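Why this split exists: single-chain examples teach little about how molecules sit against one another. For that reason, every record in the complexes split bundles all components of an assembly together and asks for one structure covering all of them. Below is a record exactly as it appears in the raw files.
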Amino acid sequence: MPINPKDIEWVEEPSMNFWESTYLPAVFDGLRTTGQHVADFHPVTEFYPEQKPDLPSHYRGVHRLNRDDKGRVKCVACMMCATACPAHCIDIVAQDAPKDDPHWADRDKFPKSFVIDELKCIYCGMCEEACPVDSIELTNIFDLTGMSRQEMMFDKEKLLSVFDQTKDSAHNPVRTHKGKLGHASDFTNLHTLGPATTVRADDRSAKANSAGVIE
Amino acid sequence: MLEQLINWFPEWARPFIMPMLTIAIVLQVNLGVCSYLILLERKLSAWMQDRIGPNRVGPWGLLQPVADMLKLLLKEDVIPGHVNKFLYVLAPGISVFTTMLAFAVVPFGPVPRNLSATDGQFPFIIAPGVDLGLVFIFAVTSLAVYGIILGGWASNNKYSALGAMRASAQVVSYEIPLGMSVVGLALLTGSMSIEKILLHQADAGILGWNIWFQPLACVIFFAAAMAEAQRLPFDLSECEQELVGGWHTEYSAMKWGLFFLGEYTHVITISFLTSILFFGGWHFPWIAEPESQYLGSTLVKVLVLLMKSFAFIIVIQMLRWTIPRFRFDQLMGLAWKVLIPLATLNVICVMIVKQFHLNQWWLLPMSAALFLGAGLIGTQSSRPFARRTVEPVAEAHGHHAHAH
Ligand code: SF4
Ligand code: SF4
C-alpha cells in the first residue's frame, strides 16, 4: 500500500540563528536539562530481585498446557503449533484416545508426549496463535533456570504443572474459553476477530489518510 | 617535623626526600581519586538518566570502586595471539606514565615562594621551579597519544587501528589550539611557569584572574583539552557505537584499567590546569589571599584549589552525558576552522594590548567581539550540503501515479 503523499512531510533541518551558531547556548541548554534531572531526581529503577516487575498479561514467557474442565490436557495433538513454530522446538507424539474409557469419551486424540525445548524457543507466541483449542499459552514466568539442557526440555507433565501453578494468578489469566476445549471445537459460537491492539479514536494514527501512518 | 625527618637522612639523600614524599602522596591520592571519580561519573550519569546507579556494594555503592579494582586485578589478563606483544603491553604503560608525568609540574596547593628542597617546606608540586611548565605539560600530554596509537596498532585489529588513526588525527589537530590558547597567558604574565601564572593572579586579586582577560582562551583551552583527553563529545577514537571499543578493543583486565586510569588522570590534570591558569588557582577573595597567614590557611588554600578543580571535573562529566559525539568532519572542522583561527586572533589581541600598553581590560570586549564575530560568520557561511527543495504535493502525487 503506497503511502498517501498527503501524509508525507519533508522535515528540513532549520538554519541556525546567530546564537545557535556560536554553540555555547546550546551547550548550556543541554547542561540545564541534565542538571534538572539531577536536581529533580525521580528514579524509575526497579530493584529487581526484591521487587518483581509488573508484567503485562500478554507478556510471553514459559509455556503452559491448559487443562479442560475435566482436568485432561486440552491439547488435541493436531500439530498446528509444531508446524507454526519457527524454531522447531516443539516435539509431539500423538496417541488415539482410549475409546472404551468414559473419561476420554468425547476426545479423538491426545498427546502421548509433548516436549518443548525452552532453550531453542524464541518466545514468539506463534504456537499460542496457532492452537485451535487454546491449549498452549505463554505465561508470565520469565526467570526459568536449569542446571542442564535436559532440564530445560519441558515435557507434558511439566507444562501442565506450569498451568496448575499459574492458572489462578491475576497476571496469567487463562486467556480464552476457560475450561472448554476452545472456540474451534464449538463452531456455533465463533469469536469475532479484532485487531490485536485497539486504536483509540483520538489516537493520531486513527486519523491518518493511509493506515498505519502517524501524522 | 618535616625538617627533622629530612635531617634524619644522610646528607646526599636529603634533596630527594621531599620529591619522593610528594610523589608518593600524589600517586596514592590520584589512584584513589580516580577510582572514586569513576563511581561519581556512574552515579552522575545515573541521576541524569533517572536511574540510581551502583548501589549494591556498601552503603550507596561507596565500595563499588574497591570491587571494580579487585575485579580488574583478578580477571584473566588475556593477550590475544595475534598482537605484537611488546608494544601491546607497553601501550597502557605509556598512557598512564605520560599523564602522570604531566601532573609533575601542576601545583596542587600554595607553592612556597622561596622553596628549597631541604628546609622542610612541603612543596605542593612534584617538580618545583620548572620555568617551561606549560610547554612541558603540552609536550608530555601529547605523548600520551603514543599509548593510544601503539595500543591500537599492536592490537592488530581493524577497529583498534581505526580508533588509533582517529586519535592521532584528533590530537595533532587539537594540540594547536591548546597551545595557542595559553600563549596569551604567557604574554600577560611574562612567564611560562605555572606557579608564576598562579601567583600573578593571586597577587592581583579576584579581578586579576585570567578569566576576565582571556575568557575566549579559557573556552578554547577547555574544549581542546577535553579533545586531548579523548573525552566525550570528542571520544571519536573509542566510540563504542561504531568502533566496538576503538583502540582498547583487545584490552582486558588491568591493562584496560590502566588506560582508564590514564584518562581520568588526564581529566584531573585538565581541571587543575583550568582552575590554575584561568581561575586563580588557590586564590579566593578574603579566605585565601597570598598574605593570609592564619592557622590552617595552607589547608584552606589547598581546599579552595581542590574545590575549583572538582567543579571542573563535574562540568566535564556533565558534558560527557549531555552533548552527543561529534561527527569526524565536524571534529576536524571545529579544530581547524574555529578554534585555531580564534586562538590565533586572541593571541594577536594580547600582542596589541601589550605592544601599545593599553589597559588590560580591553581584552574582555576584544574576546567577546571575537566570539560574536565567529558566531556571525557561522550564521552566514554556506552549508556543506545543499538544502533539499520541497516538491509541491500535487507533483509528488503525479510522480507516484507514474511509478505504478
Ligand atoms: S513461542 Fe514460538 S518458538 Fe517458542 S514454541 Fe511457541 S512457536 Fe515455537
Ligand atoms: S496446536 Fe494446540 S492442540 Fe494442536 S498440538 Fe499444539 S497445543 Fe495441541
